[in-house]
Design brief:
Catalytic activity (chain B): a quinone + NADH + 5 H(+)(in) = a quinol + NAD(+) + 4 H(+)(out)
Number of helices of chain C: 24
Oligomer: heterotrimer
Family (chain B): Belongs to the complex I subunit 6 family.
Chains: A mainly alpha (about 100), B mainly alpha (about 290), C mainly alpha (about 650)
Largest sheet of chain C: 2 strands, antiparallel
Largest interface: A-B, 70 and 86 residues
Number of helices of chain B: 9
Strand content of chain B: under 5%
Protein name (chain B): NADH-quinone oxidoreductase subunit J
GO molecular function (chain B): NADH dehydrogenase (ubiquinone) activity; oxidoreductase activity; quinone binding
Shape of chain C: globular
Strand order of the largest sheet of chain B: 1-2
InterPro entries (chain B): NADH_UbQ/plastoQ_OxRdtase_su6, Nuo/plastoQ_OxRdtase_6_NuoJ
């Protein structure tokens, strides 16, 4: 079975997610771009699991999901606390490390 | 593809997914972007099922779409649902770099994938002999048990982190019910809550304004057109509660202002709040035009 | 022979050094008795020196050179230097001269510096000087000699600038030190040459090695030693500091710049006799230098109105005589030292007399405001007069014996052949005449003629002075020195005693016949001397001396300006040096500092430029990360086949 289609899709989704991170200013949308990237890699893992007949790929994808969930929790908490003090959700405003 | 069905499924969903992903990239409002991502995730779940990973597919829907994306939506509500990103780029050259890198990365990855010759797919029929969840459980609690434990710790830590990060230190003392009641007694206000708007109304016609808990008419309750035409009528008021108007610290100088031509309006304050006690000297609302 | 007594010779250096240390460290507490401690230390050195002299006299002539080993100084690989003292006739002569004249001057200073609050410090420096000078003459290696050399230079600096609240004094002290430093370069180069030629710098090794080294090298060493000697002894061309050094207190001028320190150069040349003798060219240069300085000093002395500066010019001239004698070779070594001895007595005596005159004339130094003091300051007049007669070379005073011998030797130069005897002899002869003239001028202007001062103001415009004889503590040393000026020469000349005394050091010399017969030389000398004295009497004793110095001839004006020595020094040496240092400072600031700062600045600019990459935006950083990742992927792909 030819599963390179899924891999191509995964690659495309990954690139779009990366572009989102670079081009959007709203922190939450940037975060969603990251989620998209994670999901794309999950798709690749699952595809390879099927390709090799080994369930380790699915297990790894499962772990990725768990970690992504944890990451979302912490990341959103940070965004919320930043928003509370700065009243802005723009990623460009967090530039105190400039120069 | 094993079967044409899978191919059809793929070719139906894949373009839609790509379009949704691009929707994330280009959407102006955050909620729209979130919805696009939700769509992508649901489609991914379907694909997982098609890829002989049903367990993962359900987990994707439950955890990812159901929990993570909803969390995103909640945070968007917290942050400001109508905050829209301006599309003007502030960092010089970022747009060019972003497009270049995005397209370049995509091109490289896709090119690599297309040029690689993959071995013949084995499929997961054998692995899924005892149903997929059972097989995954075997692998998970067998080879990956340590990872599992660590990830559990990670989840606990993440939850704690979220608690800590969003914890707000109280800057002012907490004004609870007891404190509010004490303040009310100390200021000499009425201890009972005021009546809801409309309690003192005796009419419910369209051109008669509703009365607020202090008995003053609420201007916005009458259509603006009627007001402009001067077809608004006065609201009658019970004498017992007439004294409520103009009393208390909230009466003077606050409340909605009325039309200028209603000079004998029932106790409403004039537009000039600098005349102290003017509200006190306005005649009580005894005028009754209504027979 | 038993050298146990001589083995304590290091005391000669240590005692005055300890004295100086105590006086400096004790502070104001010692103000009441400090000066007596200084006198005591100096007297102790004289007693020790006398003891050693008596010991040495008890031995045979050949045994009289004793090397006292004190200890190892340092061991630097191939150069091993010990601290040792050489006690022999030459060094003992100097020891006695320094300690005797030194002690007398210490006594004199007790009274002279009575009203000075810093008297204790003065005695500390005097003791320091005595210690350094004795180290200089007793050292048994050139390196240790150099230590004493520098020590006397230091003492001279400290004492010239003793009243350092007057800027002119401080400048004079610096000038002396700097000119001496220039000369010290010669000493250092000589030391280096000695080390490279002989592998050691002590006298024994050098003199032994000199026998087998080639003449060129020896000439170089000798010439470098001569440079050093010129600086210390104020010989041409390094003579410019001596006149200015008169800014110091008069006892200092007497001790250091007349009797002892300035003679250290002559000591060095005579001590290095074995080297000089084997380098005839260096000897010739020495003699020429001596002759030139002789005339230089005499000419300058004729025009000076400052009594101390005249005496300084005279010192310069007399040391020129000594250098001339030393430059004549082995025949002149002994006479150079002899003249040095007698000169020490009469010059120191005259300086103390000048101090006595100044003391009575309210520290005025200009002879144009003296005159007729013979009636008022009798003892000073007599003692000064004896010194005057000695320096003129009138028999039977000491100067006659020593100077005459030098003139004779000058006429016997180069074995009596060629131009040398004539040139040097005539120069010495004429120099004697000029010496007579200006010394008589000094004497008559000061003590004779009409008084150019008044006892009380009578509206004549002349300064009011109350000259009186000096206290005993000042006059007794003057008397002692006058006795020495008168008698010492004759005493030492009996039977050629002094020459044979010095023989262990200078070696036995064959006497050469001068080109003119000895009686002729003697008569000529006396005639010139008397002529000079009479001329001076006519001009300064008999006729009126103007209080304001007259314009004078070109030569007079040149002589007043020290024959333009400062102008020459400044333009030849100082200005180019200043330009060089200024340009070096500029180069250092602009090139070296500029280079460093420029590099640092460039680095800073680079940092500033790179800093702009860190713009604080997360998205830029994300872009950079993704770009890096992309590059990585491409590289891996390219490599992975």
């Amino acid at each position: 079975m030819d599963m390179s289609n899924y891999l191509v899709l995964s690659a495309l989704l990954f690139s779009i997610g990366a572009a989102t991170v670079l081009l959007r200013r709203n922190a939450i949308i940037v975060f969603m771009g990251i989620e998209l990237m994670l999901n794309a890699s999950n798709l690749a893992f699952v595809t390879f699991a099927r390709m090799h007949g080994d369930l380790s790929g699915q297990v790894i994808a499962f772990f990725v999901m768990v970690v992504a969930a944890a990451e979302v929790v912490v990341g959103l908490a940070i965004i919320v606390s930043i928003f509370r003090t700065r009243r802005s959700a723009s990623v460009d405003d967090v530039n105190l490390l400039k120069n | 593809m094993t079967s044409g069905a899978e191919a059809v499924l793929f070719w139906c969903l894949a373009p839609l997914m790509v379009i949704a992903a691009l929707g994330l990239l280009f959407a102006r409002k955050a909620v729209h972007a979130t919805l696009c991502v939700v769509f992508v995730m649901v489609c991914l779940a379907v694909m997982y099922v098609a890829l002989e990973a049903p367990f993962l597919g359900i987990v994707q829907i439950v955890v990812y779409t159901g929990a993570v994306m909803m969390l995103f939506l909640f945070v968007i509500m917290l942050v400001g649902v109508d905050a829209s990103d301006s599309l003007v780029e502030t960092i010089r050259g970022q747009r060019l770099v972003g497009w270049l890198l995005g397209i370049g990365l995509g091109a490289v990855l896709v090119g690599v994938i297309l040029r690689v010759s993959f071995p013949a797919g084995i499929g997961l029929e054998e692995a899924n002999a005892d149903t997929n969840p059972v097989a995954i459980a075997r692998v998970l609690f067998g080879d990956f048990v340590f990872n599992l434990e660590v990830v559990g710790v990670l989840l606990i830590t993440a939850a704690l982190a979220a608690l800590t990060l969003t914890h707000k230190q109280r800057l002012t003392p907490r004004v609870g019910q007891k404190e509010r009641a004490d303040a009310r007694v100390a200021s000499g206000e009425s201890l009972v809550p005021l009546p809801a708007p409309g309690v003192y109304a005796q009419r419910n016609a369209m051109d008669v304004p509703a009365l607020d808990p202090q008995g003053r008419p609420i201007e916005a309750s009458v259509s603006r057109v009627l007001r402009v035409r001067g077809q608004e009528r006065q609201a009658p008021l019970d004498a017992q509660i007439a004294h409520l108007s103009g009393q208390g610290p909230r009466g003077v100088g606050s409340g909605p202002s009325h039309d200028v031509d209603r000079t004998d309006g029932p106790g409403e304050p004039t537009a000039d709040p600098s005349t102290p006690g003017a509200a006190d000297t306005t005649p009580p609302r005894t005028t009754e035009e209504e027979s | 022979m038993d050298t146990s007594v001589i083995d304590s010779a290091w005391l000669l250096v240590v005692v005055p050094l300890v004295g100086a240390g105590i006086l400096l460290l004790a502070g104001r507490r010692a103000d009441a008795w400090g000066h007596w401690l200084g006198v005591l230390a100096s007297a102790a050195t004289f007693v020790l020196g006398a003891v050693y002299l008596l010991t040495l006299l008890g031995w045979d002539a050949a045994d009289r050179v004793v090397d006292v080993h004190v200890g190892r100084w340092f061991d630097a690989g191939s150069l091993v230097v010990d601290v040792g003292l050489r006690v022999d006739p030459l060094s003992l002569t100097f020891v006695l001269l320094v300690s005797f004249v030194g002690t007398l001057i210490h006594l004199y200073s007790v009274a002279y510096m009575e009203h000075d609050a810093d008297r204790r410090r003065f005695f500390a420096y005097l003791n320091l000087f005595v210690a350094a000078m004795l180290l200089l003459v007793l050292a048994d290696s050139y390196l240790l000699l150099f230590v004493g050399w520098e020590g006397v230079g230091l003492a001279s600096y400290l004492l010239i600038g003793f009243w350092n609240h007057v800027p002119a004094n401080a400048t004079a002290a610096k000038k002396a030190f700097i000119v001496n430093r220039v000369a010290d370069v010669g000493m250092i180069v000589a030391l280096m040459l000695m080390f490279s030629s002989f592998g050691a710098v002590d006298f024994a090794s050098v003199f032994a090695g000199a026998e087998t080294t080639d003449t060129g090298r020896l000439t170089a060493i000798a010439l470098m030693l001569l440079v050093a000697a010129c600086g210390k002894s104020a010989q041409f061309p390094l003579q410019s500091w001596l006149g200015d050094a008169m800014a110091g207190p008069t006892p200092v001028s007497a001790l250091i710049h007349a009797a002892t320190m300035v003679t250290a150069g002559v000591y060095l040349v005579v001590r290095s006799g074995p080297v000089f003798t084997l380098a005839p060219d260096a000897l010739l240069v020495t003699a020429v230098v001596g002759a030139v300085t002789l005339v230089f000093g005499a000419v300058v002395g004729c025009a000076k109105d400052d009594i101390k500066k005249t005496l300084a010019a005279s010192t310069m001239s007399q040391i020129g005589y000594m250098m001339l004698a030393a430059g004549l070779g082995p025949i002149g070594y002994a006479f150079a030292i002899f003249h040095l001895l007698t000169h020490g007595f009469f010059k120191a005596g005259m300086f103390l007399g000048a101090g006595s005159v100044m003391h009575g004339m309210s520290d005025d130094v200009s002879m144009r405001r003296f005159g007729g003091l013979s009636a008022v300051m009798k003892v000073t007049w007599v003692t000064f007069g004896l010194g005057w007669l000695a320096i003129l070379g009138i028999p039977p005073f000491s100067g006659f014996w020593s100077k005459d011998k030098i003139i004779e030797s000058a006429f016997a130069a180069d074995g009596g052949h060629g131009w040398q005897p004539w040139v040097f002899g005539l120069v010495a002869l004429v120099g004697a005449g000029i010496t007579a003239f200006y010394m008589s001028r000094l004497f008559f202007m000061t003590f004779h003629g009409q008084r150019r001062w008044v006892e009380s103001d009578d509206g004549s415009g002349l300064p009011v002075r109350h000259p009186h004889e000096s206290p005993a503590l000042m006059t007794v040393p003057m008397v002692v020195l006058a006795v020495g000026s008168a008698a010492l020469g004759g005493l030492l000349m009996v039977g050629g005693a002094f020459a044979s005394w010095l023989e262990p050091v200078t070696g036995h010399v064959e006497h050469h016949e001068p080109v003119l017969p000895v009686p002729v030389i003697m008569v000529l000398t006396l005639l010139l001397v008397l002529g000079g004295a009479v001329l001076a009497w006519r001009q300064y004793g008999a006729s009126t001396v103007p209080v304001e110095p007259p314009v004078g001839s070109v030569l007079t004006r040149a002589a007043r300006a020290d024959l333009y020595q400062d102008v020459v020094n400044e333009n030849l040496v100082m200005r180019p040096g200043q330009y060089l240092t200024r340009s070096l400072v500029y180069a250092d600031k602009k090139v070296v500092d500029g280079g460093f700062m420029g590099a640092a600045g460039a680095l800073g600019l680079l940092g500033e430029a790179v800093k702009k990459v860190q713009n604080g935006y997360v998205r830029s950083y994300a872009a950079m990360m993704l770009a890096g990742f992309g590059v990585l992927v491409v590289v891996v792909l390219l490599v992975w086949n």
